[in-house]
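retry 2 of 3: previous attempt timed out while embedding magnesium ion. Reduced batch size to 1 and resubmitted. Inputs unchanged:
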Amino acid sequence: MQTSKANQEFQSDFLSVSEARNAIANLIASSYESSAMHLRTETLPLHQCLNRILASDILSPIDVPAHDNSAMDGYAFDSSELRDDRQNIELTIIGTVHAGQTDLPSISPGECIKIMTGALMPATCNTVVPQEFTKTLSNGLMSFSRSIVHAGENRRLQGEDLQSGKAAILQGRILHPADLGLAASLGIHKLEVYERTKVAILSSGNELCDIHDSLVPGKIYDSNRYNLRACIERLGMEVIDCGIVRDTPDDLRKSFTMAAQKADVIISSGGVSVGEADFTKQMMEELGEVGFWKIAMRPGRPMAFGSLKPSSNKPTPTVFFGLPGNPVAVMVTFYQFVRNALLQLNGAKRFEIPLIPVRSAAGIRKKSGRTEFQRGIVFQNPQGQWMVKTTGSQGAGILRSMSEANCFIILHHDQGNIEPGDWVDVEIFDGLL
Ligand code: AMP
Ligand code: MG
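retry 2 succeeded.
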């Protein structure tokens, strides 16, 4: 793996967020994206495919709809009845067609048939007048105004949504509930998806204490592995928990070597700040090519990225992300850098998170020359307008701010102070699908 950008290290200027993103995307694309290891596939039943990444296009085996059918409850007839010289059309009702019915009567001139939504259109009919625009007369006739319907209306044509043989869902799609429904509507009960990327997580720091142990003075609970695990599992990927690692070269070497044998990607947190990193850096030089970056952002300034060398047990390199230790910085760097890289590695396409402009309820102080990811709450003001406010104090260690937030407020590199009522970009945490 080429890491010229990655290895610019401490003496270099700060990288901007977009430079760091591009460097990661390029390194992954050139070194891993097409490698067989990351793109092994498996075939799974449809109900197990949520959040998995589609490995080959789903071609529709059928026309959708499979036959011409009615889009409305109403009366079906042939459009030749809509002659210009008649203001009011009267037709004889000769029966009813229900959805699912396959024995269809034929209609002669002057006749119509009552038809339900989704019912097959009899061959001699091409138009439906919705029931609410019609009057039934006592002598078995139905009447409606000529102007209410045009030839061919309220009929769904065979193959209108999708034609047999055409792609319904493209390779690289992250499968959402609607995709599974769409596959089911085509009678497809299993899908070829990429095997889940295996991601090893570990927390480094002598101060860290496992949540099952009792806290002694000077220690803090390790929360990062729980954030990270959940973030990764939400992406549908497999987590290998490598626990807490003490900050010694031997412990780190052992843990990273073991993790690299089992995982496609390693994500560690802590130990990349100046000082500590000199030491991690030395160890990383031995195990692979890892660059230590300072990024012009807040929170999450230091980050390491690169790859660990292949070994006899694992013939491909392992992607490595060394995230900062502060819990908020972990989540910010995960969503701003790691998420896309993991999806890219797992074969996904089109996974950008949209930036949505929302008015800021209050002023926000911001220094130009770095990107800030503030924790925000999008809310509805008493006038019913959606606005955004920060969660308050934005310290990188205040995990409660992430927990209370429902969005990141993204203050871009060149942006300065925000005045009340200014538009700011937000990234909403939860998506519907
Ligand atoms: P570091 O990047 O190792 O200097 O850590 C920065 C801050 O994050 C320090 O206050 C650490 O105690 C804290 N920290 C590091 N790792 C974790 C973790 N796994 N869980 C919670 N806090 C952490
Ligand atoms: Mg540390």
